[in-house]
């Protein structure tokens, strides 16, 4: 897929697009980039119109000095979907991307065919982990002066990525992600949004009604960034139509077990997978 540019309030946002058919939009996690979805995009472009977006501050998109809030990202997502004329779109996210999928679907449920939420970030799924403890502490420290100029050494960047992988991630190609973490100023978007993440607590109590787009959840059981145990409790309120736990995966399941993730996205985007809640039977918990 070739890189394209979308203008968001004067800032260039990079995205990939390939294929024709029912649209699928992939949204990466904080600290990630659109390339994490390469396997899914390659597999699905033959049957669907596939989009993968770099969030503001990540990948090849602009890295402004400020503006990193949940509201800004939701406004970006809404503007992108509107500008591309995406209708009846299947939204697929990882971590923060999953949170944004849910927030968009809450405001525009009639425009969403289905949701595939991988390791969804909420206040409850973040707080029990080492990443959650660090986020709580760092919210109370003025990080901006450091984050603007800091460059992580290569070995440290490698450890950051390795922390996101489970047992099955040993052969995952991570060079591109490691390189991003070593670029000057790449910590700024993450540092700036930390104070706003508690707002995602609203997702912990959200209970979709029968008209809400069907949800699939996927958790890497070895996730050290977010808690899969808390994710199981989140499933009790989200009531996903399909729930998959991948025992050997961590935070980057789409790279660690691309076939399983692709299968769930393909089903969710299909005419059967996108049936509304009232048309489906009881939630299905899947074995990997």
TrEMBL record:
Official protein name in the record: Alpha/beta hydrolase fold protein
Superkingdom of this protein's organism: Eukaryota
Domain named AB hydrolase-1: residues: 23-131
Entries under Gene3D superfamilies matching the protein: alpha/beta hydrolase (3.40.50.1820)
InterPro entries, per database record: AB_hydrolase_1, AB_hydrolase_fold
Keywords: Hydrolase
Single annotated GO MF: hydrolase activity
């Amino acid at each position: 897929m070739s890189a394209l540019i979308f203008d968001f309030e004067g800032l260039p946002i990079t995205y990939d697009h390939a294929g024709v058919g029912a649209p699928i939009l992939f949204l990466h996690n904080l600290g990630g980039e659109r390339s994490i979805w390469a396997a899914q995009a390659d597999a699905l472009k033959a049957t669907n119109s596939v989009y993968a977006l770099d969030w503001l501050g990540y990948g090849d998109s602009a890295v402004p000095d400020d503006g990193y809030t949940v509201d800004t990202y939701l406004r970006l997502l809404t503007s992108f979907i509107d500008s591309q004329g995406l209708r009846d779109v299947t939204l697929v996210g990882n971590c923060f991307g999953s949170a944004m999928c849910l927030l968009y679907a809450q405001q525009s449920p009639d425009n969403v065919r289905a949701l595939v939420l991988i390791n969804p970030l909420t206040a409850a799924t973040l707080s029990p982990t080492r990443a959650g403890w660090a986020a709580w502490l760092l919210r109370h420290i003025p990080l901006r002066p450091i984050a603007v100029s800091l460059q992580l050494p290569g070995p440290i960047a490698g450890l950051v990525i390795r922390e996101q992988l489970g047992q099955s991630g040993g052969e995952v190609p991570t060079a591109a992600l490691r390189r991003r973490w070593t670029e000057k100023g790449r910590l700024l978007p993450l540092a700036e949004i930390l104070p706003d993440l508690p707002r995602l607590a609203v997702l912990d109590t959200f209970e979709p009604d029968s008209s809400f787009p069907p949800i699939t959840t996927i958790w890497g059981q070895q996730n050290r960034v977010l808690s899969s145990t808390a994710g199981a409790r989140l499933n009790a309120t989200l009531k996903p139509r399909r729930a998959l736990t991948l025992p050997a995966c961590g935070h980057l399941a789409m790279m660690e077990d691309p076939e399983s993730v692709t299968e769930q996205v393909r089903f969710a985007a299909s005419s059967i997978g996108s049936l509304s809640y009232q048309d489906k039977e009881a939630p299905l918990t899947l074995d990997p």
